Predict the 3D structure of the following.
Amino acid sequence: MGAFVVAALAVLAGLSVAEVGSALTFQAPRHTREQMESALAEAPRWRFVYGTRVAASEPILRQRALGLARRLFGGDSTQVEADRDLTESELAASSVMLLGGPRENPTGPPSGARSSAMPATTGASSRS
């Protein structure tokens, strides 16, 4: 049954069975494992940072951050972190998706971590 399906698909695509067979052969990798892993290390780290200033909003924002990270990174949620858990240098070295508004995310103390690493500020007129 499997060979019949391949032959039928080949006919529909206008290819001969031999062409389909050659298209399905594996190719040797072009790069070593070390080369591929080193290329990944050069990519900036993404962080999904959720606000913690409003206790009622924190679990909701955390769940949203986890959902986004899992969808964008194939189930990997290690990039999700609370704003209070990051240092200034960690934020400065990352691409950041900030979840929550001005009420949930401090722009200065008490967090302290966002003093200069997060140049964006929020104002009273900002929407949350």
